Amino acid sequence: MFPLVLGTTSAEIRPVLIAFNKPYGVLSQFTPDGSPNRPLAGFGFPPRVYALGRLDADSEGLLLLSDEPGLNHRLLDPERGHPRTYWAQVERVPTPDSLARLARGVALQDYKTRACRVTLLDPQPTVPPRDPPIRFRKNVPEAWVELELHEGKNRQVRRMTAAIGHPTLRLIRVRIGTFSLGELPSGTWRELTPTERRQVLG
Description:
Number of domains: 2
Shape: globular
Helix content: 10-25%
Structural class: alpha+beta
Number of helices: 4
Order of helices and strands: EEEHEHEEHEEEH
CATH architecture of the largest domain: 2-Layer Sandwich
Radius of gyration: 18 Å
Oligomer: single chain
Distance between the termini: 23 Å
CATH superfamily of the largest domain: Alpha-L RNA-binding motif
């Protein structure tokens, strides 16, 4: 139950759902972890919000935050079928056979990934440069691949692309449900509208 604020009624108090474009080198938590990575505490979020799920510090893009109890389980339970879409910049251009392997699910050390939707982006997207930039090798081409997953194991996308011989150089989460990151600048956030909330939660 949310606490009442003086001068308001319970009907005026509603949970907050926030979209944040998490930059590289930022943790998905509010407290430092002893690494050089920055916590969420420095981005001016409202009180009592928490991250729904996580993005690794070296991943970027859409991170949701809320002050609503129980929303984390509702959104992240793979049985509820909330898709999460990522753009992965990988070394070399994957063949159709390699993409089909990803789509069927690949065997990792501790589990096999579920079937997912995988697409070689054509045309390749134009995204703002990362700070710091990715490593560049003049004689090794790169490609952007889109993956739509219904699960979120630890470093799953990176482990999946590595399993087919295409290491991930840069990873951006661009969509949760049908809500897209859009033009939200890196390092900024905004509260979602009721319509956008439905896009996230279904």
